[in-house]
Design a protein that fits this description.
The structure holds two protein chains of two kinds. By secondary structure, chain A is an all-beta fold. Chain A has no helices and twelve strands. In chain A, a hairpin with a 2-residue loop joins strand 7 and strand 8. By secondary structure, chain B is mainly β. In chain B, 0% of the residues lie in helices and 47% in strands.
């Protein structure tokens, strides 16, 4: 069964420094997608970055990059130059990708990131 | 482009009462999801629609929860009767297709339910 594990309940980072949020996954499917979402205290889930299982390059979106290690089944999020506005819950999620089958996201437990001034 | 719209944002009800949440997905998105997020946990899928048909409702407590998506656009999630453990954020989300892993799922701001 597919599963997402985030082992860091909470993380602190100094403003302007980089931080890595860990995510490991388990799936028997060959085709899948990995997502990271940010959830501020307002509750909305904000899409950050996506990595496909067949993508050879690590995904990057502005200050966000995804360190994808397929053999280790890990998909860590790296945030560079942290800002105070980055303080939020971060969720790793996976979607199995067989065409015409359910494309639901399975979420991890989340990591609460606090950025210190 | 307008995002996923949800209402109401906040609702407080007594146990055994009923409540309904409404969702309007992003225009053109055929797939609509309802997730339940209990405080301190990741969201859990309740039901997934493709147009107006149900794709997955395996984790929907059907004795008290119901959902519909008439005409393949807006959707309503109902809880009747509510229990204390239903206190959660109910997130609606939508995406273009159900197949393939790369189609991003976009979420609304959520409807916060407190059952007292």
């Amino acid at each position: 069964a597919q599963k997402i594990t985030q082992t860091q309940p909470g993380m602190f980072v100094q403003e302007k420094e980089a931080v890595t949020l860990d995510c490991t996954y388990d799936t028997s499917d060959q085709s899948y997608g990995l997502f990271w979402y940010k959830q501020p205290s307002s509750g909305e889930m904000i899409f950050l970055i996506y990595q496909g299982s067949y993508d050879e390059q690590n995904a990057t979106e502005g200050r966000y990059s995804l360190n994808f290690q397929k053999a280790r089944k890990s998909a860590n999020l790296v945030i560079s130059a942290s800002q105070l506005g980055d303080s939020a819950m971060y969720f790793c999620a996976m979607r199995e990708g067989r065409y015409n089958q359910g494309g639901k996201l399975i979420f991890g437990q989340g990591t609460e990131l606090s950025v210190k001034p | 482009e307008a995002g996923v719209a949800q209402s109401p944002r906040y609702k407080i009800i007594e146990k055994r009462q009923s409540v309904a949440f409404w969702c309007n997905p992003i225009s053109g998105h055929a797939t609509l999801y309802w997730y339940q997020q209990i405080l301190g946990q990741g969201p859990k899928l309740l039901i997934q629609f493709q147009n107006n048909g149900v794709v997955d409702d395996s984790q929907l407590p059907k004795d008290r929860f119901s959902a519909e998506r008439l005409k393949g656009v807006d959707s309503t999630l109902k809880i009747q009767p509510a229990k204390l453990e239903d206190s959660a954020v109910y997130l609606c989300a939508s995406s273009l297709f159900t197949g393939g892993s790369g189609n991003t799922i976009y979420f609304g701001e959520g409807s916060w339910l407190t059952v007292v």
